[in-house]
Design a protein that fits this description.
CATH topology of the largest domain: D-Maltodextrin-Binding Protein, domain 2
Number of strands: 14
Order of helices and strands: HHHEEHEHHEHEEEHEHEHEHEEHHEE
Strand order of the largest sheet: 4-3-5-12-6
Low-confidence stretches: none
Number of helices: 13
Distance between the termini: 54 Å
CATH architecture of the largest domain: 3-Layer(aba) Sandwich
Radius of gyration: 23 Å
Structural class: alpha/beta
Shape: elongated
Mean pLDDT: 86
Largest sheet: 5 strands, mixed
């Protein structure tokens, strides 16, 4: 190996490319911006050419930089795979396991999943923000694994294992009326409480409304499911949700009414997504534990909430 080639320099360069700016790369790696700039400059001097064209804004990779980035990214992936393989083979704890989980899964299934897998890692980092559960977070290696409903994973060379499937349904304020309501009837009486359109969940609901040519009154848009369902519980409107979302928010949302959606079923599928460089046995172990935790701890609660969901929730292609 050439004297200027070391993994830390490679890691710094890859982080700078993935984060777009030196400052964000420095924050990600716990370094100063000056240290990041100096490391990249040292690489360029050693290689005898520019990796980044700083004359344009925003800065872009040169041809040399693009070639080096591809090899460097692959190298870091193989190093990560080697580290995990060695740790697993020696029956040691992983030093750190970083996993992104959609918020509703993290709050309802997450504790049971972590408890079941607690012995595989010395330290856990569980993230559930919108950015941390997007496929980009996995591609940029900000997380090692992800449980997400973001189906853009099929655009990349990633491993995706289906974990759970659940239907969307109507959620309305508490009422003594026994009859079921349709979306058309609800929108005549009150506005739709919307989810933030920056979320994959919110975009999926909006796509359903467009396909059904439904144009409910738009007054409220909130960025958390707890806030959305609390607004519904207060009688300010209705919404569309899934069982895990309602289970997560039941304490703050109160006694809500749940009605099936008319027409073709709209479902949300959750996937465990990982890079091909991750340890296959570890991926399977996490997927199995996630499925078991969901079926054991959440499906019974879902069926008590809405018995008509029998056969509509469970592992994809194998409904409970």
């Amino acid at each position: 190996m050439k004297s200027w080639m070391n993994l830390r320099s490679v890691e710094i360069f890859v982080a700078a490319v993935e984060e777009d700016t030196m400052s964000r790369a420095a924050e990600r790696l716990g370094l100063t911006q000056s240290a990041v700039s100096q490391a990249i400059a040292a690489l360029e001097r050693a290689m005898g050419g520019q990796l980044i064209d700083r004359a344009v804004r925003p800065a872009k990779l040169t041809l040399l930089g693009t070639t080096f980035y591809k090899g460097a990214s692959d190298l870091l992936g193989r190093v990560r795979e080697l580290e995990q393989s060695v740790d697993l083979d020696l029956n040691k704890l992983l030093p750190l396991l970083r996993i992104g989980m959609v918020d509703s899964f993290a709050a309802t299934v997450g504790p049971h999943l972590v408890k079941q897998l607690d012995t595989i890692a010395a330290q856990w980092s569980v993230m559930s923000g919108v950015n941390e559960t997007s496929i980009r977070a996995l591609m940029e290696r900000r997380v090692d694994f992800m449980i997400t409903s973001d189906n853009s994973h099929n655009q990349f060379d990633l491993i995706a294992i289906p974990i759970f499937e659940e239907p969307f349904f109507l959620v309305a304020p508490p009422t003594d009326a026994p009859e079921e309501k349709t979306a058309e009837e609800l929108m005549m009486d009150m506005p739709l409480i919307r989810y933030s359109r920056s979320s994959f969940f919110g975009r999926q609901v909006d796509a359903y409304l467009r396909e059904r040519a439904l144009a409910p009154q738009h007054r409220y848009e909130l960025d958390t499911s707890d806030a959305v369902l609390a607004m519904v519980s207060a009688g300010l409107g209705w919404t569309i949700a899934t069982p895990l979302v309602v289970l997560k928010s039941m304490q703050s949302a109160g006694n809500l009414r749940c009605y099936p959606l008319n027409g073709a079923p709209l479902k949300r599928k959750l996937w465990l997504v990982a890079q091909h460089t991750e340890n296959v046995d570890l991926i399977e172990r996490i997927a199995t534990a996630a499925r078991q935790a969901t079926i054991q701890h959440c499906v019974p609660r879902i069926l008590r909430l809405a018995p008509w969901m029998q056969g509509q929730v469970g592992i994809p292609d194998s409904p409970y």
